[in-house]
Design a protein that fits this description.
transport; two-stranded antiparallel ribbon; single chain; transmembrane; glycoprotein; antiport
């Protein structure tokens, strides 16, 4: 942890490097080859049709072309009361006969009633029969035997299709749950039951159905407005680039205008909220509270309330006060940050290609996400159909045992358990591969996290190498090497793949633990006691903090790797001690720079967002004819704002990396050199003037 001694031969990122963390590099390559093999195996065994089409009790897909079920695309459950929740239904593990039908039932009926009146009401019988097993037409067979053999459902309920499956058609009338305006129904076994029993069987489906209708409207909005969304994102890109180009020349002026601009925009927001609040005074209904009107999908309803505008005003006032206080207390620190940003913008000016490096990272991450998603789907659908004995008699010892539908009728089961059937249960298998599908899914997720972190690390190390070669050029720009970005990328891949993989591996392990904790928390909801909840919450919090700390250490370790070419552990240790020796500078410079860059993203996203708002709400007269008519104008608006923020984030992340690299180089420079002719500083004169101390010997911050 001691400061480095002066090395007269040191002239920036060293070129006579050697490979670092070779063992980790070999393991990484082997894991990638294994991951490709896993993808091939999953592709061979998987069948995405199992996700697209529901499967009936005979193991056949509903709605698949060139089969008997071609025109029967919807799955119908004989007794939906046996299904605990939609999750069970979607997993196709519901202990009742499942049949492909062309449309869901639209009325209440029980088999007992229909069978009793089949002679003088043949229409009812023919309607009911389409929900019985194919080919069944024996109204004289005793009701007990029909229900035992599950030839027909005991009842049918008005339903509508959801996820290609028939679910009860719920609606709420005056706060009471109903199905087709009824609150009770006959279950076909002599009992009258309440509709809430159905609700428990299809728990939460009503909300999902509402969400589905909203989802369809959102999809329509995207279909109409995608062209304008792309134009909005292109404008955001141009504004971001323009912002960076301007920053090269007028960092100080621009940032102060910029900060006061943000204060002005928030000030306007406060005035507008007050105007709306005052304007709604005395208008009937405007004094209602948000709690009174509940959740509404049309957000314009909330804008008619005074309380909404008051809440907006209070929030904006709070933000305004915080920003003004931060400016008062951090004004000198902001000057320092601006000096560093000027140096950073100068560096980017000489190495413009760095601005477009995030596109490479984006492409690499997109490939990782696509490969992971496809592999996950193929793994999830790579099971063989598993059939199990389904017996209505609970005492049957063969119940829930696996069976073969082709040989089932010749076994003892049908004799010992009358009415037992061999029906499709789920996709799985008994082979070694099928038993470990869950483990393979975990491995898929883990390698995905590892690869994504590696792609990010590669970007950070490459950019750090390029910016370090700028800093350690004694005469700028004459001593900057040719193609600094490409040579840095080449060095990183050739010598330091192992080190980057090591750093990414540590981060991936922590992220996988976080994913497992989230999964456990989700699974145990409702069943856990307060102690378990507290323990899980603590663990989640600890691992979140650990991940943040590791990201910070890794980022600085990669900068040290880019400069000195040492292994990951040595670089991480050196970076950590260097930062600890300059802890005050780190805290102020790093955070102020992050804050200023964050304000930049807000300004880009906010500016484009305001323009998009006026455009999509048809308030700009010039474009009023071109603006599309939408169900929800906030759909493209939010997409444009979030997209603009991400575009700005891509460009500004290069800046943040530049500033971090220059800062570490600056700290190294101060420790190695003292500004004398024998040990000259490498920093530029302007940076030395503002950042450098007046003394000629390095001291701790």
């Amino acid at each position: 942890g001691e400061p480095r001694k002066f090395d007269p031969k040191f002239r920036g990122p060293i070129h006579n490097r050697h490979c670092t963390d070779i063992i980790c590099c070999v393991i990484f390559i082997v894991v990638i080859l294994g991951y490709i093999a896993l993808g091939v195996v999953a592709w061979v065994h998987g069948d995405p049709r199992k996700v697209i089409y529901p499967t009936d009790s005979y193991g056949q897909f509903c709605g698949q072309k060139d089969t008997l079920n071609e025109n029967k695309a919807i799955l119908f459950y004989f007794n939906i009361l046996k299904c605990a929740s939609p999750v069970v239904l979607i997993n196709l593990q519901c202990p009742t006969t499942q049949l492909c039908v062309s449309k869901c039932p639209d009325r209440f009926a029980t088999y007992i009633d229909v069978q009793a009146s089949y002679r003088y009401k043949p229409d009812q019988w023919n309607y009911f029969r389409q929900f019985c097993k194919p080919g069944f037409n024996s109204p004289r067979k005793s009701v007990a035997q029909v229900l035992r053999d599950e030839d027909c459902p005991s009842m049918i309920i008005p339903s509508r299709p959801f996820l290609k499956r028939c679910f009860p058609d719920f609606s709420t009338k005056n706060g009471v749950l109903t199905v087709a305006n009824q609150t009770t129904f006959k279950d076909g076994r002599g009992k009258t039951r309440n509709v809430t029993d159905l609700r428990e069987a299809a728990n939460g489906i009503n909300n999902v159905l509402d969400a589905r209708s909203v989802g369809m409207k959102i999809f329509e909005d995207y279909a109409i407005s995608w062209y304008w969304i792309l134009i909005g994102l292109f404008i955001a890109m141009v504004v971001s680039l323009l912002f960076l180009v301007l920053l090269r020349f007028t960092a100080g002026v621009l940032f102060w205008i910029f900060i006061f601009g943000v204060i002005g925009i928030i000030g306007y927001g406060i005035w507008h909220c007050y105007w709306e609040y005052d304007h709604l005074k005395g208008i009937p209904g405007s004094d209602l509270t948000v709690y009174d009107i509940g959740f509404q999908t049309d957000f314009r309803v909330y804008l008619q309330l005074r309380q909404t505008w008051l809440a907006f005003m209070v929030i904006l006032c709070g933000v305004e006060v915080i920003i003004i206080l931060m400016l008062i207390f951090l004004r000198n620190r902001i000057r320092i940050a601006i000096a560093l940003l000027k140096e950073g913008s100068r560096a980017i000016g000489y190495i413009m290609s760095t601005l477009f490096y995030p596109i490479v990272t984006f492409i690499l991450i997109a490939i990782c996400i696509s490969y992971w998603a496809v592999t996950a789907v193929f793994l999830a659908t790579s099971g063989e159909p598993v059939y199990k004995v389904m017996a209505n008699e609970t005492l049957c010892k063969y119940a829930n045992l696996t069976c073969d539908p082709e040989t089932f009728n010749s076994t003892n089961v049908t004799r010992l358990c009358p009415g037992a059937q061999c029906t499709f249960a789920f996709y799985g298998g008994e082979s070694l591969y099928h038993k470990y599908i869950f483990i393979l899914q975990l491995a898929n997720a883990f390698v995905f996290l590892w690869l994504v972190n590696f792609a990010i690390a590669l970007g950070q190390c490459t950019l750090a190498g390029a910016f370090a070669s700028y800093y350690w050029a004694y005469r700028k720009p004459a001593d900057i090497p040719l193609w600094p970005l490409f040579s840095s990328f080449g060095r990183t891949i050739r010598y330091h793949t192992g080190s980057l993989a090591f750093g990414a591996l540590i981060l991936a392990i922590v992220q996988l633990i976080r994913v497992i904790l989230e999964y456990l928390d989700h699974k145990l909801k409702g069943t856990q006691n307060s102690f378990t909840r507290f323990l899980l919450c603590c663990l989640k919090c600890c691992f979140w903090c650990l991940e943040k700390f590791l990201k910070f250490i890794n980022r600085n370790a990669y900068i040290m790797i880019a400069i000195y070419g040492k292994n990951f552990c040595t670089s991480a240790k050196d970076a950590f001690y260097l930062l600890m020796r300059n802890v005050v500078r780190v805290a102020v410079l790093d955070k102020v720079t992050d804050f200023l860059l964050f304000l930049g993203k807000i300004l880009v996203a906010g500016g484009v967002g305001v323009f998009a708002f006026f455009f999509f709400t048809q308030r700009i007269q010039v474009f009023a004819q071109d603006a599309p008519t939408l169900n929800y104008y906030w759909v493209p608006l939010l997409t444009v704002i979030i997209g603009s923020y991400l575009v700005a984030h891509g460009f500004f992340s290069v800046y943040a990396m530049c500033v971090d690299t220059l800062f570490l180089c600056f700290c190294e420079d101060l420790e190695r050199n003292d500004g004398s002719t024998a040990k000259p500083y490498f920093m530029s004169a302007s940076l030395h003037r503002i950042l450098g101390k007046k003394e000629l010997s390095p001291k701790k911050a």
